[in-house]
Every structure is written in C-alpha cells, then in structure tokens.
Design a protein that fits this description.
By secondary structure, this protein is mainly α. It has 2 domains: 147 residues, no CATH class; 32 residues, no CATH class. Helix content is 54%, strand content 7%. Helix 2 packs across helix 5, helix 3 packs antiparallel against helix 4 and helix 5 runs antiparallel to helix 6. The chain starts with 7 loop residues before the first strand and ends in a 5-residue tail after the last strand. Keywords: Membrane, Transmembrane, Transmembrane helix.
C-alpha cells in the first residue's frame, strides 16, 4: 500500500488544483444557485418550508426524504467521505484488489448521489425522459420539475402526503380466473373482456 505524498492529489499539485478550482468556481456557483431555487419550490410543493433546503445536511436529508428515502442521504454522505479518504490516502497502483475496491466505492457513491434526481422525477409522475435528463442536466430539469404542471405524488414510505390537487393514475382492471376454465393461461377482466398470454386475446 503506497501513501500519496502530502500536497498532491492523484498527481495534481495543490497549486494546480487551486487554479482549476478558481476557473470553474463561477459556473459551479451558478449551478448551485439554480439547484437551490428549484429545491426551494420543490420543498414547498411537498409541504416543507422552502428555506429548509438551505440548511447543510438537513436540507439534503429532506431532499432524499421527499424523493426517495431519508436514510439514503446519510449513506451517500458516508460513502462520499469514504471515497475522498480512499483517493487521498491510498494509491492502488500495482494492487488489483485496491483498484477494484476503489472502483466499487466510487460506483456506489455516484449512484447514491445522483439517484435522488430521477427519483424526484418519478415522485412528480415524470417518465424515463425526465429521469435521464435529471441526471445529465440536473439544474434545468429540477427547474422543470419544480414549476411543472405535474403534482407531487407524495412519499408513503416517509409519511409525506401528496400535493393538493394530485390525482392518482387509474389502476388497470384486475383479472380473475374463469370459473369454468381450468386453463391457467386464460383470465377474465372485470369489464367482461377475455385476456390471456396470446396476442389475439
């Protein structure tokens, strides 16, 4: 196990890292501004005070509580700390085990950190396009979700009620077995239709 010398990060000196940070800082600040504007609105639509999104850690926890599960936020925080410590302290060169371990930690961390955005889209009844877009263009799609026409569907797992005006989608008709038919492949719909596994049913 090799320890990376102090003052470097994956071969980049501290001075180079500082220069890169200053270059992207304006864009990062603008992106964060749009994200927090959208979160403020999303919080209000979910029944929380908008300003709570500004509280460090608690705002993140509520975001996960609204869209996914609150406990997953703490998992993401723990994995992020582990990932950063792993990359700063350990150089996996020459060790397949450490390389695989770092890759696994990175994958889980990224999944937990970006997974909240497609889950938020689902809670507002958006489909696959919005789920993908919320990952690739987070700021823009969060604004669409926040001010979109789709109502928040709530999160029963966290005890959060739907937004006023939300209409749950109609459930498809249930199917029951034909009482006089022993064939397991055929069923009757509640509306009297005859369904089965064959395309011509």
């Amino acid at each position: 196990m090799n320890i990376i010398p102090a003052g470097s990060f994956a071969g980049i000196t501290a001075a180079e890292a500082l220069t890169m940070t200053r270059a992207i800082l304006p864009e990062l600040a603008l992106a964060l501004l749009f994200i927090y504007i959208a979160k403020w609105k999303i919080f209000r639509r979910a029944g929380f005070a908008g300003w709570k999104c500004l509280i460090p850690f608690y705002g993140g926890y509520l975001t996960y509580k609204i869209g996914w599960r609150g406990k997953y936020y703490w998992y993401s925080v723990a994995m992020t700390v582990l990932m950063l410590a792993n990359h700063v302290m350990i150089n996996p060169r020459g060790s397949l085990y450490l390389t695989v371990l770092q890759s696994a930690i990175d994958f889980v961390t990224i999944a937990l950190n970006i997974g909240i955005y497609p889950m938020l889209a689902v809670k507002f009844d958006y489909k696959l396009f919005f789920m993908i877009g919320s990952i690739l263009f987070t700021e823009a799609f969060l604004l669409f979700i926040a001010w979109g026409k789709h109502a928040y569907s709530g999160n029963p797992d966290e005890g959060i009620a739907p937004e006023p005006g939300y209409c749950a989608p109609a459930e498809p008709p249930k199917r029951r077995r034909l009482e006089d038919d022993d064939d397991d492949d055929f069923y009757n719909d509640e509306d009297g239709g005859h369904g089965g596994i064959w395309p011509w049913n």
